[in-house]
Each structure stands twice: as C-alpha cells, then as structure tokens.
C-alpha cells in the first residue's frame, strides 16, 4: 500500500475544506471497498478524509413525506429501520441480499453507491483495463465475460455496477445530496448519478472531484408490493448475476430496475408500462438495445424469467 496522510474532520464544512486543500484525497467511510483497492494499489490516494465523524448517520422524515438517509448510515441499520421496512421494503430486501452481515455492519449508504466494479480484470493489475488505466484496453471484451454487462456497454468497457442497494434506490427514485469543495450543495437524481462507460469508463458518477455525499433522500412512499430477486452463483455472499428490484401495484403496473446487466442500475421507464402486460413485454423494453457477448447472452433470458417470477409473486 502507498503511504498516505489521514484526517478526521468533525463537520461538513471542515470536510469540504479538506477536499479543496487535497486534490488527490479520497473520502473513507466503512472502508470495505476502498481499503482493498488501496492494498492492491488500484486506488492510490495521498490523503484520506475520514467522514465517520460528520454525524451523517441518521434516518429522518423529510418535510415532503419521504425519508432522508445520512451518508454514513450503515447498511445493517438502514435495512432494519422500521420506516424503511414498512414503506420502502424493496430497499430493505436489496440490502440484506448484499455482502454478509459483517460487511453490512461497516458498509455505508454513500460507500455502497460508490463501490467499484467487480470485473476480475479491474482487480488484476497484470491485465489491461481501461477503467483502471485509461487507454490500455479492455481485457473482458474477447476474454471471460460471463458476469459482465449486456446493455449500455461501449467498446471500451463492459463492466457492471455491483450494488444491490442502488437497484432499489433507482426503482424508488432516490436523490443523492452532495456538498462540493467550495461548500455549495446540490441534489442529483439517482437516474443521473451513475454513468454509462462510453469512452471514459474511469469516470463512474456525476460527482465532481472532491464532492461528497451527505445523504440520500427518498420521495413519499408509493405503496405496492416490494420485491427484490437476486440470481447468483451461490445462495449467499455473492454478487448478482442479475437482479430485479420491483414495486408492483395491485393493477399490475409498477416500477422495475435491473442489476448485474449494466454499468449503472438499469431502468427504462417505458418498461414500467410493460409490467402489466407481462415479463416478455417488460424485458423486451428493458433490454431492447442489449449487446451481450457469447458468454453472457444467458442474462437476457434470465432477466425475462426472473421478471416472470417477480410478477407471479406480486400476483400471489
Ligand atoms: C467480499 C465482499 C462481498 C460483497 N458483496 C456485495 C454484494 O453482494 N452486494 C453489494 O451491493 N455489495 C457487496 N459488497 C460491497 C460492499 O457493499 C461495499 O464495499 C460497501 O457498501 C462500501 O461501503 P463503505 O462504506 O465500506 O465504502 P468505502 O470502502 O469506505 O468507500 C467506497 C468509495 O466511496 C467513497 N465514499 C465513501 N463515503 C463517501 C461520501 N460520503 N462521499 C463521497 N465519497 C464517499 C470512497 O472514497 C470510496 O471511493 C461486497 C464487498 C465485499 C468486500
Ligand atoms: S470491462 Fe471495464 S473494468 Fe473490466 S477489463 Fe474492461 S475496461 Fe476494465
């Protein structure tokens, strides 16, 4: 691991100032992804800004009837919160489908959204990877690509976003609240937060350098049946091959977001309308522009079958 300096600010203002003063700094929350990346020297920040002392660990109602989730709320606490379980069951279910109990006790809301891909070539520093080292090439294209993206891909990267929680956030229309190094704040709809790879797969979100997340807000509850179905190679402690996050209303309409298929939580609003017509209609709308590889073509069928199971479960 490369040497780094460390500080633990105690206010949002101090954290913004620290980010402004250290362009090579990274924020650290639970550290469950960042520390692994630092040990492999995939991430080499010269300074760490520990955000655990900022008091951003509360879940509170908003004046609009929604919920504000502090950036530092641990995945375990978010999944077990009474209001989340009652009104945003999809979020609770997606969280407990991720990682392990031990990891969820450390992992935070912001860190989970910002965790990096699990493409094995990204972690293997002997292999070319445009995301790790722009311009070197993509080892997954023409390589082992069973776990990779099938939609929204580019000629430079076919990685997926690995978060389960983010799929629920996307279906629930969450908004990411941030503060920039100059102290100004902004709200980023989750739909615009994660990016597709394009020619710059190393730029994964809409965050500007030094901008940090203070909270994620959820709009008013929308009712309906909340279902998260994760398909993976083993029953626990594994990332999704594909996952479906859905909220389905009694008339069969609803919302659906898909994980494990793209560089970002994948939602196509037109597919929501297809839900009432059945899995084939919804899956066709979701994956209309799919460009799978030979090895991951199965994901296209898997999404349709998993959606079928979700719709059947919602209908009881
Ligand atoms: C073995 C293993 C299995 C896993 N399985 C799953 C799984 O099945 N599903 C799943 O969804 N996840 C899984 N994970 C990933 C885990 O959920 C993430 O590592 C975790 O959510 C990251 O949160 P953290 O707080 O530890 O982030 P950190 O490691 O502290 O940070 C991650 C990134 O977020 C940035 N960051 C953190 N907080 C802020 C902030 N407030 N503002 C701006 N930037 C910030 C950091 O700079 C860093 O770039 C797994 C992880 C491991 C190690
Ligand atoms: S898919 Fe993306 S992360 Fe994986 S090797 Fe290619 S460029 Fe790197």
Structure description:
With 316 residues, the chain is α+β, with helices and mostly antiparallel strands. It is 30% helix and 17% strand. It contains 13 helices and eleven strands. The strands form three sheets. A five-stranded antiparallel sheet has the order 4-5-8-6-7. Strands 1-3-2 form a three-stranded parallel sheet, covered by helices on one side. A hairpin with a 5-residue loop joins strand 6 and strand 7 (185-189). The N and C termini lie far apart (52 Å). The model has no long low-confidence stretch (mean pLDDT 97). It binds flavin-adenine dinucleotide (FAD) and iron/sulfur cluster. Residues 26-34, 51, 71, 98-99, 103, 106-108, 110-112, 114-115, 162-165, 212-213, 239 line the site of flavin-adenine dinucleotide (FAD).
Sum this structure up briefly.
By secondary structure, the protein is an alpha+beta fold. It is built from 13 helices and eleven strands.
């Amino acid at each position: 691991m490369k040497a780094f300096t460390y500080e633990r600010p105690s206010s949002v203002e101090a954290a913004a100032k620290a980010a402004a003063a250290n362009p090579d700094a990274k924020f650290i929350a639970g550290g469950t992804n960042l520390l692994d990346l630092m040990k492999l020297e995939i991430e080499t920040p010269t300074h760490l800004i520990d955000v655990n002392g900022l008091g951003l660990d509360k879940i509170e109602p908003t004046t609009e009837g929604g919920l504000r989730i502090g950036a530092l709320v641990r995945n375990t606490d978010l999944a077990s919160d009474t209001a989340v379980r009652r009104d945003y069951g999809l979020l609770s279910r997606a969280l407990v489908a991720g990682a392990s109990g031990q990891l969820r006790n450390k992992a935070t809301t912001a860190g989970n959204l910002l965790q990096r891909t699990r493409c094995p070539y990204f972690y293997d520093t002997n292999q070319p990877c445009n995301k790790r080292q722009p311009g070197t090439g993509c080892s997954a294209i023409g390589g082992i690509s069973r776990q990779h993206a099938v939609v929204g891909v580019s000629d430079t990267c076919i990685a997926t976003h690995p978060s389960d929680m983010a799929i629920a956030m996307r279906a629930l229309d969450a908004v990411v609240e941030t503060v920039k190094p100059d102290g100004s704040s902004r709200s980023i709809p989750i739909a615009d937060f994660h990016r597709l790879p394009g020619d710059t797969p190393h730029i994964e979100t809409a965050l500007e350098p030094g901008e940090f997340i203070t909270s994620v807000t959820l709009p008013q509850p929308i009712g309906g049946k909340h279902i998260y179905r994760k398909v993976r190679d083993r029953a626990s402690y594994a990332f999704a091959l594909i996952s479906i996050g859905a909220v389905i209303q009694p008339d069969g309409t609803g919302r659906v977001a898909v994980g494990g298929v793209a560089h970002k939580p994948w939602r196509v609003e037109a597919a929501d309308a297809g839900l009432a017509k059945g899995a084939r209609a919804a899956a066709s709308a979701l994956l209309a522009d799919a460009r799978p590889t030979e090895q991951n073509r199965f994901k296209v069928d898997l999404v349709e079958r998993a959606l079928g199971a979700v719709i059947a479960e919602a209908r009881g």
